[in-house]
Amino acid sequence: MLGSAWRDPFTTHGGLVFTNTVGAPLSPSSIWTHFKRIREVAQLPQMRFHDLRHTAASLMIAAGEAVTTVSAILGHSSAVITVRTYAHALHESQATAIASLSARLRRG
Fold it and tell me: Average pLDDT, stretch 59-65?
């Protein structure tokens, strides 16, 4: 409906998922405003928008996803950055794996 005013987010902006009404990137202030409103409606604690990225990465690692996969999803230049940043999640994941193996061996 916008004709030439529409900016195709998949070709002009590298594959954006969320855009404004003309297909351009959302402004940081717009994202923050929407995020605060959603957070309040969902009755979530105070957090930064970026905390969602950390939570997602930690949950993927805890679920046993390969660090290289998590690194690629996050756009890190190497898995080393992911390991350094999310070492706490890796340690928790390893502890869970060891406890699970121990329980299986005791049953066996």
Answer: 85
Contact criterion met (CB below 8 Å) for 58 and 86: yes
Neighbouring C-alpha atoms within 13 Å toward the C-beta of 95: 6
Phi/psi for 19 (5° steps) reads -135, 170
Cα(2)–Cα(18) distance, integer angstroms: 17
Strand partners, 25: 19
Domain ranges of the chain: 3-41, 51-107
Q: What is the pTM for the complete model shown?
A: 0.61
pLDDT tens track for 37-56 = 999 999 999 999 888 888 88
Predicted local distance difference test score (pLDDT) of residue 35: 92
DSSP line for 37-79: HHHHHTTPPS--TTHHHHHHHHHHHHTT--HHHHHHHHT-SSH
Distance in angstroms between the alpha carbons of the first and the last residue of the chain: 65
